[in-house]
Amino acid sequence: MSEEPIPQLRFYEEIKAYEKLECPEERRKLAREIYDNFIMKELLAHSHVNMRSLILYSHHFQD
């Protein structure tokens, strides 16, 4: 069994930690870390699919 946590579980744990914070500054910092480490990575991992779709879509109107 792998020692590395499942990404979805780690994301959930980070969200729970965020919910427990009361200081707006700490919440802002953790929110940024969550965004960078989970959401942005996921968006970038799939950006090639979106770009390809956009290119094919734009070529459709050029013909």
Automatic annotation (TrEMBL):
Signal sequence bounds: none
Coiled coil residues, start to end: none
Domain named RGS: residues: 1-42
InterPro entries linked: RGS, RGS_sf, RGS_subdomain_2
Protein name: RGS domain-containing protein
